[in-house]
Amino acid sequence: MEPAIQLSNTLIGFTIAAIVFEILFPLVVAYLVGRRLQVSWRYFGYGALIFVLFQLLSRVPLMQLGQFLLGPQLRDSAGLRFSWITFAALTAGLFEEIGRYVGYRWLLQREEKTWPKAVMYGLGHGGIESIVLVAGLTALTLIQLVALSHTDLSTLPITAEQRAQIAQQLAAVGAQPPWLGLLGAWERGWTLALHVALSVVVLQVFRRGDIRWLWLAVGLHAAVDWLAAALPPFLPLGDLAKVLLPEAIITVVGLISLWVIFRLRDRPALEAAALTVPDPPQR
Question: 3-state DSSP helix/strand/coil percent for the chain, to nearest 5?
Answer without folding.
Answer: 80, 0, 20
